[in-house]
Amino acid sequence: xxxxxxxxxxxxxxxxxxxxxxxxxxxxxxxxxxxxxxxxxxxxxxxxxxxxxxxxxxxxxxxxxxxxxxxxxxxxxxxxxxxxxxxxxxxxxxxxxxxxxxxxxxxxxxxxxxxxxxxxxxxxxxxxxxxxxxxxxxxxxxxxxxxxxxxxxxxxxxxxxxxxxxxxxxxxxxxxxxxxxxxxxxxxxxxxxxxxxxxxxxxxxxxxxxxxxxxxxxxxxxxxxxxxxxxxxxxxxxxxxxxxxxxxxxxxxxxxxxxxxxxxxxxxxxxxxxxxxxxxxxxxxxxxxxxxxxxxxxxxxxxxxxxxxxxxxxxxxxxxxxxxxxxxxxxxxxxxxxxxxxxxxxxxxxxxxxxxxxxxxxxxxxxxxxxxxxxxxxxxxxxxxxxxxxxxxxxxxxxxxxxxxxxxxxxxxxxxxx
Length: 418
Known about the structure:
This protein is 0% helix and 39% strand. With 418 residues, it is mainly beta. It is rod-shaped.
């Protein structure tokens, strides 16, 4: 009888028709990254086991799989080569030989199942300016996940970002879905307070595994324009009293101290006319040194260096020296040594005029004298500097106990200067 093909090997006995194949296509499953030597099961055939010899003839160049030549059991040969992200299925051509003579082949498919692998995130060091606001991205944490083929299969590679509470207790920083770190609304950076912020950012994947990145934000100093302070004496304003007396030799306001260096322990060192006193009130609450030829000194209360920008000067009242311009000379002590001097002359008409200083910068103090014809002063505009000298002097000087009693400018019960 003629030989008939069995459709699977290289020939077999038949009765003039085809027979069922000796081995058929089969499939197996494994998790990615399995241990070497893990068994996937047995490849089966219709050949008596004692007569079968097994081998992988194609599709296994990297040695990822191994088949026992006697039993047909399929093993993991190299677990590192079984990676879902690289290959989700593998077709192996498996051959079984019967009695060492006849070969039969089939496709054995191995399906690889994704295994969630932890993400990773690198540490970040960033620089920021203290003027940055909540629209500025200060740093970006870049997370990565080995599960790159997970899209559409699972959510393993979906990353989320969070700043751990312990490193952000004041809620100063926020992080968005892309790992961008910004200031929270209403928050700011201040070099003078904190030069470095250290955050811990947790990057979590869709399967719950995480990694932590350390983010260091170094804050850079910015030369900020000093905030102007205007000494306007409004705390002494009165609509009922003709004169208001601060008392003692000094008056303090907004971190600055005015001292009457001529004070001898008598009347108040300074006087402020009330708004009801039409003869002395120059349109706003002003001060005058209560002593004839009294010397007024201005210092910062903490001894720091300041700039003197402008001052309002008024004639003394409506009748004393009316029509006579006032000449007032200011002397500034410069930090580091030296003095600066500037003189202003009023128009002689009762009322305040503003005078701007041109070079009263980096001062430790400023002084001026209330000489006849006398004057009032108001709205002293000063700004602090960023690099104050360490001064040993106090803001308010002691008065020489041996100085002669000074004459006092008129108060309601004082003498008449007319």
